[in-house]
Amino acid sequence: MGPSGLPLDLWLRVERTLGYLFNEAVYERANTAMSLGTHGALRRVVLGLVYGRVLDVGCGDGVYLTQLASRTEEVVCLDPLPARNHSALPNFHRVVAVAEYMPFRDKSFDFATAMFSFRDFMDKALGLFNMRRVSKRGVVILDLFSTSPYLRPAVTFYFGYIAPAMGFVASGGRRGRWELILPTLLLMPRADFFKRIGGVIIARRGLGLVSIVYLPVN
Ligand SMILES: C[S@@+](CC[C@H](N)C(=O)[O-])C[C@H]1O[C@@H](n2cnc3c(N)ncnc32)[C@H](O)[C@@H]1O
């Protein structure tokens, strides 16, 4: 997989920034602008795939959590940040923890999902190991992935300059540190990597830059 996660200093900066964006309630607005509206549709694909008991790893203050809880038996949202937005549904629970150290027994859930959070793990191998360990059926990852080397200059330009400018405007001028997306993206494997470990690519946009990967658990 290559480099397995964010170095501690980068992880701390990313978490501080995300906490700020959640508190200011501008994270989703900025994301919609930077992803040109595609992230919501891709999240809906993930919501349509899972059922039963679902662990959503790196849920943040996910706007989709009530929808996820309303269509499944139970949702546990795991995140190091104690975000403000919670679903009021009785089958929704929030656990403050990290993917690398999950306080759950083996096969406690039907599915484990990670939407735009796998990229931020401190240790992707350990986080993925735990997501598989606690799932009976499979793991679904929706995220930005590394692209072919030919596309890298365009991707670097977009996430280095265009996306931060769009995030700044969409958030009403908040200092969101959107330039931190780029170093997290540069540490990602390509979506195709997951095929080598038994995964299937369910959706692919922007020549694989944004993909949904499904890893069945045997
Ligand atoms: C970009 S946000 C995505 C939030 C939400 N899933 C969504 O789609 O809007 C990434 C989330 O991953 C969380 N995160 C970062 N490192 C993590 C880790 N090691 N384990 C679990 N979650 C982590 C962050 O706190 C943040 O809430």
Structure description:
Helix 2 (27-34) crosses helix 6. The protein has one domain: 3-Layer(aba) Sandwich (Rossmann fold), CATH 3.40.50.150. It is built from seven helices and seven strands. Helix 5 links the parallel strand 4 (109-115) and strand 5 (135-144). With 218 residues, the protein is of the alpha/beta class. The protein has helices at residues 8-23, 27-34, 38-49, 65-70, 124-133, 152-170, 181-186; strands at residues 53-57, 74-79, 92-96, 109-115, 135-144, 200-205, 210-216. The structure holds S-adenosylmethionine. Residues 15, 18, 57-60, 62, 79-81, 98-100, 115-117, 120-122 line the site of S-adenosylmethionine.
What is the topological layout?
Layout: H1 8-23, H2 27-34, H3 38-49, E1 53-57, H4 65-70, E2 74-79, E3 92-96, E4 109-115, H5 124-133, E5 135-144, H6 152-170, H7 181-186, E6 200-205, E7 210-216
Parallel strand pairs: 1-2, 1-4, 2-3, 4-5
Antiparallel strand pairs: 5-7, 6-7
Helix pairs in contact: 2-6
The structure holds S-adenosylmethionine.
Pfam families: Methyltransf_11
Organism: Infirmifilum lucidum
InterPro entries: Methyltransf_11 (IPR013216), SAM-dependent_MTases_sf (IPR029063)
Task: Describe the structure using short key phrases.
218 residues, alpha/beta, Rossmann fold, 35% helix, binds S-adenosylmethionine, Methyltransferase domain-containing protein
